[in-house]
Amino acid sequence: MPAVIPPVMGVSPTTATGYASTTELPSTDGSQFATSLTGALENVQSLQSTSNDLSIQAVTGDLTDIHAATLASSRASIALEMASTFRNRGVEAFNEVMRMQA
Amino acid sequence: MPLDAIGIAGTALTVHRKWLDAVADNLSNINTATATTDDAFRARYVLAQAGGEDTGVYVAGTELGDAAGRVVHEPSHPLADENGNVRYPDIDYSEQMGSLIMAQRGYQANAAVVDRAKETYQAALQIGRN
């Protein structure tokens, strides 16, 4: 009499290790990135307008502190660099996903 | 607040600029004579105060030097009194020159902090670029 082969049992699902729980997934409509980028750009815009005002004061002779103008321009430039870096990285990631094929 | 190193260094730049202004004022009036009935030019000293909680440094106010000054016998001076005396400010030339160098170097040091901070932030933005 041949030995009875036990039926194949279902495999229990594996649990991810070392990851945070996935119960709180962020919204997937992509609006969060846009919101963050818009906020960053608004920040850049306000820094640039401060820098602009101080530049105008510098050329009209109303500026008391030279460094106030150069500091504002440094801040605006680094903030713009930061926003553009984040935007580029985001678009890079998106393009990487778009290049996926079976 | 982000980019704080730049803001902190900015407060120090302002303090050193004001110190430089005070030294300029003192040196410009170092030979200003007044009549003995008036006060001598009083040297201006900037009082710096720490902002606390990493907010840099601020000018708390200024102190004025001695109003008595030095009484100098100079009968040919138009402001001389009946004894031929005028009042000169009691400002030490070498002390002011020392302050001038310290204000300049302090300003330069904080300007260097701004540049280094900016370079550091730029390095942070380069992470993972390649």
Describe what this molecule looks like in 3D.
- The complex is a heterodimer of chains A (about 100) and B (about 130).
- Chain A has a domain at about 30-100.
- Chain A is mainly alpha-helical.
- Chain A has two helices and no strands.
- With about 130 residues, chain B is α+β, with helices and mostly antiparallel strands.
- Chain B has one domain (about 5-125).
- Chain B is built from two helices and four strands; from the N terminus they run αββββα.
- The longest helix of chain B is centred in the last third of the chain and has 34 residues, at about 95-125.
- Chain B is elongated.
- Chain B starts with a helix and ends with a helix.
- The interface between A and B is medium-sized, with 13 and 14 residues.
User: Strand-and-helix sequence of chain A, N→C?
Assistant: HH
> Fraction of residues of chain B in helices?
40-55%
Helix count from the secondary structure assignment of chain B: 2
Tally of contiguous helical segments of chain A: 2
Name the assembly state: heterodimer
Structural class of chain A: mainly alpha
**What percentage of the residues of chain B does DSSP assign to strands (E)?**
15-25%
Average per-residue pLDDT of chain A, rounded, comes to: 82
Largest sheet of chain B: 2 strands, antiparallel
* Most strands sheet of chain A: none
N-C termini distance of chain A: 48 Å
Reading the helices and strands of chain B in chain order gives HEEEEH
Q: What would you call the shape of chain B? A: elongated
**Spatial sequence of strands, sheet with the most strands of chain B:** 1-2
Please tell me what the overall shape of chain A is: rod-shaped
Strand content of chain A: under 5%
Number of strands of chain B: 4
Number of domains of chain B: 1
Number of strands of chain A: 0
Structural class of chain B: alpha+beta
